[in-house]
Design goal:
The protein is an alpha/beta fold. The chain folds into three domains: 133 residues, Response regulator (Rossmann fold); 114 residues, PAS domain (Beta-Lactamase, 2-Layer Sandwich), CATH 3.30.450.20; 69 residues, Orthogonal Bundle (Arc Repressor Mutant, subunit A). It contains 13 helices and twelve strands. The strands form three sheets. The protein has a five-stranded parallel sheet with strand order 2-1-3-4-5, sandwiched between helices. Strands 7-6-12-11-10 form a five-stranded antiparallel sheet. Strands 8-9 form a two-stranded antiparallel ribbon. It is elongated.
């Protein structure tokens, strides 16, 4: 399936309404999408719901000025650090440029606006981001191919560098390979165990759920379908839980012996590790707010706890949960949590 990206979205932050309208019109005529704000705080509020490809920001504004906005953005929203930030101002003294650069601005345009220069600067910055994204996409595609075509001790050793537990199963549901993180998890917890060439949950109820998920993933893989399901493993001796995401690896050609049919991703019960919100945004096309809810969900299973941590109502949490289910293709909290925890190692298929 071809990945058709929408035209780049530019956030224009400018308090002079006439100039703001002129800039927006120029950008739209060039083919860009736009959103606009009249001061830094309004722009920060917008960034809670949209993720632009570039920010074009005035410096001298009432309320929160451009410097203040950039300072707050770099401190409070580090996941947006890759978005190019271009200052637009009548302040052309070298010290003003230096201050902007020291705060992390990527470029600096001086008023009155030279629209040709503005468009050229925007195009150049977006081109740089595009190159970085292409490299990142290539790395993710390579990872997907490595899992689907897993073969050889060299590839097995690579998985040992991954903090997430990874277990590969063949067409019979038998273990082909399990990385060191999976073995460490089995050794120090009461949640899972390796019995011969099988993976089992220590708790009988949890094991029935795990084996059912493995059987369903196996059937999907053999019929060429994609399927993911999450299982929460709990133990009577431990108040925590381990999330397991079972993923079918659909057959595309003739099956080869030793080829993985199923991959399991096991999370560690470490509440201090936070899932990368920026990566969740990219993998599942989440808004910044949805990514924050998803990241918090990985460390707390109760909606009331999520609401308290994020300072919002239970109704707001329910609203974002519905969006998360829709965007990740899940319909159960267990599946969603497992997918979030496995996100850094997953490629969302077309």
């Amino acid at each position: 399936m071809t990945d058709i990206r929408p035209s780049p979205l530019i956030l224009v932050v400018e308090d002079e309404q006439a100039l703001q309208c002129d800039i927006v019109e120029e950008l739209q005529e060039t083919g860009y999408r736009t959103v606009s704000a009249s001061d830094g705080q309004e722009a920060l509020d917008l960034l809670a719901e949209v993720t632009p490809d570039l920010i074009l920001c005035d410096i001298t504004m009432p309320g929160l000025n451009g410097y203040g906005m950039l300072r707050a953005l770099r401190k409070e929203r580090p996941e947006l650090a890759a978005i190019p930030f271009v200052f637009l101002s009548a302040l052309s003294e070298p010290r003003e440029v230096v201050e902007g650069k020291s705060l992390g601005a990527d470029d600096y345009l001086v008023k009155p606006v030279d629209y040709d220069l503005m468009l050229a600067t925007i195009a150049a910055r977006l081109r740089q981001v595009g190159l970085i994204r292409s490299r990142h996409d290539a790395e993710l595609t390579a990872l997907r191919g490595a899992l689907a075509g897993f073969n050889g001790a060299g590839a097995a050793r690579v998985l040992d560098f991954i903090a997430l537990g990874v277990v590969l199963l063949d067409e019979q549901g038998k273990i082909i390979h399990s990385n060191s993180a999976a073995h460490d998890l089995a050794a120090v917890s009461d949640f899972i165990q390796f019995s011969g060439n099988e993976i089992r949950a220590s708790d009988s109820l949890a094991d029935r759920a795990l084996q059912r998920a493995i059987r369903e993933a196996r059937a999907a893989a053999m019929s060429g379908r994609e399927k993911t399901a999450g299982v929460l493993l709990q133990s009577g001796q431990d108040a925590g839980a381990v999330s397991v995401l079972t993923c079918a690896l659909p057959r595309e050609d003739v099956y080869k012996e030793g080829q993985p049919e199923i991959v399991l991703f096991l999370s560690t019960p470490d509440g201090h590790k936070r899932v990368s919100e920026s990566l969740l945004m990219e993998l599942f096309e989440l808004t910044p707010t949805e990514a924050r809810v998803a990241g918090a969900l990985a460390n707390s299973s109760r909606s009331a706890d999520l609401a308290a941590e994020l300072g919002v109502s239970n109704t707001t949490i329910a609203f974002h949960m519905r969006n998360l289910f829709q965007k990740t293709g899940t319909n159960r909290r267990a599946d969603l949590i497992a997918l979030i925890l496995a996100g850094p190692m997953m490629i969302k298929s077309d």
